[in-house]
Amino acid sequence: MLKGIAWGFVIITDKNEMKRLSDETKKHLVENLEKYPYFKQYENMLKDINFNIFYNAPCLLIIYGDTNSHWHVYDCTLAAGNIMLAAVEFGLGTCWIGFAGHICDSGEFKSKYNIPGHYKLVCPMVVGYPKVQLPPPDRKPAPVFFHG
Predict the structure, then answer these.
(1) Which residue, 106, 114, 140, 148, is most buried by CB atoms nearer than 10 A?
(2) 36: burial class by Cβ within 10 Å (0-12, 13-18, 19+)?
(3) Using one digit for the tens of pLDDT, what is the confidence trace for 92-143?
C-alpha cells in the first residue's frame, strides 16, 4: 500500500456481470429480509425481475478503504463525494447503491476482484448519463445545536 492512500477501487463495466450481481443481490436480500429490516419497504421492487439494483448504468465504481488507516471511512466517503461532484461537471449522474453492500463486501467478490483482506467496502456507486436531469432538491434547514 502506498503510504497515506486509504482507498482502492474496483471498476466494473461489463453489463452481464452487473446484471448477475444485481440478480444475486436481490435474491439474497429477499431471502434475508429479517436481517435487513430497512430494506423491507423495497421488497416488491427487489422481487421484480426487471429491476436492476444498478439501474442499468454503464459503470459500477466501488470504493474500498484500507482498514489499516483509522480514517479510511472518512477518506473514502470524501473521495466518493468528490467523484460525485466531478461527475456532474461532465454531465454524468451517480448514485450510491446501498443494496450492493452485502455482495461487494463478500469474501467471494473480494477474491474474484483481487481486493486485499484488510480492505472494507465503503461505497458502491453507479456512474452514467442520466435519462433526465433532475431538479435540485428542496433545501431543508439543518439543525443548529449550538450557536454562541
Answers:
(1) 106
(2) middle
(3) 999 999 999 999 999 999 999 999 999 999 999 999 999 888 788 899 999 9
Q: Is residue 139 part of a domain?
A: no
**CA distance linking residue 71 with residue 20, whole number of Å:** 32
**Domain-located, residue 145:** no
From CA 29, how far away is CA 100, in angstroms rounded? 10
The number of distinct structural domains making up the chain is: 1
Cβ neighbours, 10 Å, residue 69: 18
Alpha-carbon distance of 68 to 36, in angstroms, equals 28
- pTM score of the predicted model: 0.90
C-alpha 87/C-alpha 95 separation (Å) is: 11
